[in-house]
Amino acid sequence: MTNFLGGRRVSPAESKSKLRSLGLAVFLSATTALTAAPNVASAQSYRFNSVSIEGNQRIEDGTILSYAGIARGQTVSAGELNAAYQRILASGLFESVEIVPRGGTLVIEVTEYPTVNRVAIEGNRRLKDEDLTAFLEIKPRLVFDPAKADRDAEKIAEAYAQQGRLASRVTPKIIRRSDNRVDVVFEVFEGDVTEIERISFVGNAVYPDRRLRRVLSTKQAGLLRRFLRSDTLVEDRIEFDKQVLSDFYMSRGYVDFRVMGVNAELARERDAYFVTFNVHEGDQFRVGEITTISDLSDVDADEFQEELKLKSGDIYTPTGVENAISRLEGLANKKGLNFVRVEPRISRNERDLTLDVEFELVRGPRVFVERIDIEGNTTTLDQVIRRQFRIVEGDPFNPREIRETAERIRALGFFGNSDVRAREGSRPDQVIVDVSVEEQPTGSLNFGGTYSTNAGLGLVIGLRERNFLGRGQSVALNLSGAEGSRVYSLQFTEPALLGRDLSFSLDATYSESTSGSFANFDTETIRLRPGLSFALGEKSRLGVFTKAERISLKRRASVTDLGGIVTSEIDRPDEWDLGLGYRLTYDSRIDELERDRGYRLTFEQEAGGMGSNNTYIKTTGNATAQTKVFNDEITLRATVEAGILAFNQGSSRSVDRFQIGSGLIRGFQPDGIGPREIVRAGGVPTGAIVSNDALGGDKFAVARFEAEFPLGLPEEYGLSGGVFYDVGSVWGVGNAAAATGDVFYDDFTLRQVVGVSLFWTTPIGPLRFNWSHALQKEEFDQEQTFNLTVSTQF
């Protein structure tokens, strides 16, 4: 990095050397001149009758004299004269300074730094001018300072280094203009990206490198390096990864885990990094004896012991202990036992690798919340942030509750930065809780395309705002179209209706299918579904909803031969289906570190057809479980689903019944299995089939089992494999069977499918490729041996 001063290029080191030489020369000349006077030589002190300042154009004489600190008639020593020179030079206003005594007059000659006329950045393509100039110290119309120019060049280089361009160079150039002005131009050589070629670990025996690499946010460079921004070395990201690794091991009982150090070695060509994490795993500990004690007269320790969900033999995790403490303190609050705190004591048993946990309930200090101050929210209403608190002004202060509140505020996703701190209030027994937030954009407009083997190519337009009008509400408008179908939907969610843990949702959808669909008729659907949901417990939630729906069936002009059942359904007058129902869910995965294992249960019932001639009760259930084995290398997943549609009055249609396809059993087209109405030419059993319509069924039951495993390829490719086995059936058409036509597979007829999957994590989303083979199927089933979908997460 170089400076351009006095029309000649000099390096920063050379510039500093010349300034030191100049200062020494000035000092010696001043000393020599002063010692030439007989009275000065004898007293080593100097007196000037006047001070003359020359060369200044913008800076006032008084300002320079204030820096010098020398007045007329003042007696000064040689050291004080040198100090005056240093003060004037250190002001940063002058390119050069000279102090020259002339008899009884002290002459101060200065050369002012020029003013900045223009600041420009050249050669930058990867980073925009406005992004770089935002943090520069050099500004137009300010005095030019070479030190600031050097610092700004370093800042620009650091911005490129954050993007992995370590070979970038930034050179400040100074172009002299008239009237003592300069243009400052930063010439940028961006260079290539210095990627992370390899991430390895030393000291790990339990989990292999490939498993630990999946934990890190820093990734190795791979096939998608042009799309990834996580395959470059960023110091903050490495620090974050150290904490993530620690959390990963701690959540699995390795309480002695430590990251001993991280070594990043740059290749000789400076085009790649080799990063090594040096770790100490230690032993895995389990929970030993659990006890709850208290000396408080109003606390029954046995009652609190029964509240604990932590069990002996469980893998010990700090999160499990924190959850136990929260439960105990929550019980104390419910019982009106204010200021009761839980202090855990952990005892190690090295022989059997267990940790005994003793919870002691003690009386904490009597401290109250004086007030809650919120700042930084320009759009988000205070009430959105306040409702994340479980306490209000005047409540007993609980530090644990403040920490949990901070996590809830961060989880909103409305703020780029948030900080919750407590400080002493107006009295020692009161605290003030300060909340400082920095808002970030919460809206998005998405344009995209879709492709699946079922629907073909499609277009998706989505508009979403997660913090509508700063009220914490979510609004989403989606338009999607593919071959043979179009969907328009509007979703609105109020997460805290009436300021309580009560969520209100509204879903309005209009969809239609045309000639490209798998059925031999067109459909038009209008649906409006408002609902409320609230927590029943720590892991369970109940939702209630109502719906108004109308599904119209339209005869397709291109189809002339339809069965009697489908024809009667199309000819049925359209009716609005009014109904209400509830949905109960239970999710065992309350620990964020264990979201990839556990189970989820869902049960839903809906009573529909109110006010019409067709009334029914529809019941569905789903149970999904997932775990990881072989040191988290292999993911095992199992799902069981079932449903029954019971009509109290009237009969169902194809669009009302359960349709089973690739979404429930892989290996078959949509509506590919189940009861079917077959129509043959001439109505004779041996005639050619002219119509083969899926009728759906009033009952269905399916089970899906799958395993996902690594393929041994570099993790940065985002590829993994899987195998699956699906089994199930759909059956029963109810009163529709009485219509004219031949109905096949109206009884329980089992289908079985096996297959392999390829999972690919891409910048556009997780894709899943399925190749399947039906072990058991029926003659008129419509098989699908390949399917491409977006991979869903448990």
UniProtKB/TrEMBL annotation:
Q: Where in the cell is it found?
A: Cell outer membrane; Membrane
Keyword annotations from UniProtKB, A to Z: Cell outer membrane, Membrane, Repeat, Signal, Transmembrane, Transmembrane beta strand
One term under GO cellular component: cell outer membrane
Gene Ontology terms describing biological process = Gram-negative-bacterium-type cell outer membrane assembly; protein insertion into membrane
Task: Classify the main location.
Answer: membrane
Record domain POTRA: where: 46-113, 114-191, 367-440
Query: In this record, what's one Pfam family?
Result: Omp85
What superkingdom does the record give? Bacteria
Q: Which InterPro entries match?
A: Bac_surfAg_D15, BamA/TamA_POTRA, D15-like, OM_assembly_BamA, POTRA
Quote the function comment for this protein.
Part of the outer membrane protein assembly complex, which is involved in assembly and insertion of beta-barrel proteins into the outer membrane.
- Share what the entry says about its subunit structure, partners included: Part of the Bam complex.
Please give the family membership noted in the entry: Belongs to the BamA family.
Official protein name in the record:
Outer membrane protein assembly factor BamA
Species whose genome carries this gene? Thalassovita mediterranea
Q: What is the lineage of its organism?
A: Bacteria, Pseudomonadati, Pseudomonadota, Alphaproteobacteria, Rhodobacterales
